Amino acid sequence: MAKTILIIDDSISLRQVVKMALSGAGYDVIEAGNGQEALKLLDGRKIHLIVSDVNMPVMDGISFVKEAKLLPNYKFTPVIMLTTEAGDEMKKQGQAAGAKAWVVKPFQPPALLTAVSKLILP
What is the CATH number for 103? Predict the structure, then answer.
């Protein structure tokens, strides 16, 4: 059975690029346009990894990660932040919230797939 990855980004084109890379590698992908939409998808289904942008309308990625980590089913779900934010302060906030990796846009799909394969839940 394929592992499921949740992609959260307000850019539809970026979600498509990430989805193509992940689907091509054999993963099932579900998508959300912001943190609030994504929280609605955390409904008990098994999600093996989350890839989230930081800067989004409605609910940003760091707030989303904090909320997701409060949910018992998703407490240990690894999160990769995929963002244009490269500053150390933002990375610290992401780590404090529970993000396991930080990939800066524009990204190379092989680099993202490497991070995914290292972090994804069994």
Answer: 3.40.50.2300
